[in-house]
Specification:
heterodimer, A: mainly alpha, 5 helices, about 0% strand, B: mainly alpha, 3 helical TM bundles of succinate and fumarate reductases, binds protoporphyrin IX containing FE
Chain lengths: ~140, ~120
């Protein structure tokens, strides 16, 4: 029989950072935002599908979604997109091995790829924060 | 298809989505910014604007492309998450097949919508 490693650690196994720190939380949030966007997108395909029945059908669908709860939901999808996109660019660079750095002798003070990549994580989070602030201002004060 | 190739497509579609969805979100959510740049309005979901966009060739093509890439990227990601749960090989295969079938069905439906609305006259 195929050997299977039991890694069902429950919700905390997914969301907790453990000893891995910031990168692990960034990963949990990436996963959460990805699933959130996916759930929205699957519904979105059917909602935008009402366009096929003409402007009246579209307007009545939009009328249904015209309340603060859905507006907030859409805004959260937008925030999830901002985070997932910026962190995703970082992950693409990491996974293609572009941020690993050159190999070297293990001399003190020891360095490893997670530490070498850390500044990129910080920059990505700062960029996300700026975009989120701008989007928040747009959502709260500027767009009717 | 080999897993490494599917994974590569997951990364590649991420880059494509970045541009397509970036454009879509810019239009839908950055109303004031978009307007400040003289590019759009603050009512992107108003019927007139929705149909105005949908009837342009450019948007039809980008919607179909976004549909395909986002469905693959999202469903492959979803499958990866489930497959981490120490599932049996049979269950993993079934999940893979289900995601593939759902992806193709949604892609066909969404493409039908995009093409039909593009062809609509007098809206
Ligand atoms: C904006 C452009 C996007 C970029 C740059 C991007 C990037 C990425 C990357 C690099 C990964 C792989 C992470 C890893 O291998 O550990 C990933 C995972 C994922 N993405 Fe995206 N993505 C984007 C848009 C989307 C969209 C639109 C959806 C939903 C339809 C989505 C859903 C997911 C899911 C469900 C995962 C799996 C998460 C996991 O395994 O923990 N992403 N994304
Ligand atoms: C959360 C905010 C979003 C809003 C307000 C929004 C709004 C819209 C609207 C109004 C349309 C109709 C076409 C048009 O007006 O030009 C549309 C189509 C579409 N959207 Fe979005 N969208 C959002 C998020 C997303 C996301 C996250 C994705 C992908 C992961 C997405 C993918 C698509 C696709 C593929 C179509 C074309 C569907 C078809 O023609 O079959 N949208 N969206």
């Amino acid at each position: 029989m195929q050997h299977r490693y039991k890694n069902n650690l429950g919700l905390w196994g997914w969301l907790g950072g453990g000893r891995y720190g910031a990168d692990r939380y960034a990963y949990a949030l990436h996963r959460l935002s990805g699933l959130g966007i996916l759930a929205y997108f699957l519904m979105h395909i059917f909602v935008t599908g009402t366009r096929v029945d003409g402007p009246e059908a579209w307007e009545s669908a939009m009328h249904f979604f015209e309340n603060p709860l859905f507006r907030l939901g859409e805004f959260l999808v937008f925030l999830a997109f901002l985070y997932h996109a910026v962190n995703g660019i970082r992950l693409v660079l990491v996974e293609l091995g572009l941020l690993v750095g050159k190999p070297g002798l293990p001399s003190y003070p020891y360095s490893h790829s997670v530490i070498r990549q850390r500044p990129v994580l910080v920059v990505a989070m700062v960029i996300t924060a700026v975009l989120v602030l701008f989007a928040g201002a747009d959502f709260l004060f500027l767009t009717k | 298809m080999r897993e490494s190739r599917l994974w590569f497509w997951h990364i590649l579609t991420a880059v494509v989505i970045l541009f397509l969805l970036g454009l879509h979100m810019g239009i839908m959510h950055m109303g004031t910014l978009v307007q400040a740049l003289g590019l759009g309005s603050t009512h992107p979901t108003a019927s007139a604007e929705v149909f105005e966009r949908s009837r342009q060739f450019f948007f039809m093509i980008t919607y179909i492309a976004l549909l395909g890439t986002a469905l693959f990227h999202g469903l492959y990601g979803f499958r990866s998450i489930l497959c981490e749960l120490s599932l049996s090989k049979t269950l993993q295969k079934a999940i893979g097949r289900l995601c593939t079938a759902a992806g193709f069905a949604l892609f066909l439906y969404g493409t039908y919508v995009a093409v039909r609305v593009f062809q609509m006259k007098g809206v």
